Amino acid sequence: MSSEHEQQRSRLHAEQTEQPSDEPWTDLELTIPHNRSPTAVVSLVECALVELTHEDVGAEIVSTSVAGVKRTQYIATDDVGQRFQKRYFDERLGQHETTVSRETVRDELVSRLTHQSSLGGEVGQNDVDGGQDSFCVKPARELRFQE
Q1: φ and ψ at residue 96, rounded to 5 degrees
Q2: Environment class of residue 6 by beta-carbon count within 10 Å: exposed (0-12), middle (13-18) or buried (19+)?
Q3: Residue, of 103 and 6, whose pLDDT is higher
Q4: Where is the composition biased (Basic and acidic residues) (predicted)?
Q5: Under 8 Å between Cβ of 83 and 76
Q6: Per-residue model confidence as pLDDT tens digits over 55-69
Q7: Above 90 in pLDDT, residue 13?
Q8: Segments making up each domain of the chain, as ranges
């Protein structure tokens, strides 16, 4: 298992160094649906958690469906990365903020990123035009709800 993890980490590092970037977190993004293995998703989430702990960045998942856009954001609130602010915004229901543990963030991100799209196969062509769910890590100052 550890050798598989090291291979995943090495591949992720190779992907990051192929593209010029000043910040190591800029390539931590994923569009859903995707073709990554569950192990690759866990590796991506672990890398994101490290960056959330050590940089002034946050993680965001954006889900689009016929019910509207939903955003879930996570930002570390302590220096050791054990507590995170979770911000949730739903166009219909408004905004909610809470504090959650690192374990909760990890579990929620893995669950959301391994689940294939909130759209499923139930949306007809008139309901949503090419909507996809997405995950990314970006500077905390850019994490604002677009109401």
Answers
A1: -140, 135
A2: exposed
A3: 103
A4: 1-16
A5: yes
A6: 889 999 999 888 889
A7: no
A8: 2-118+131-140
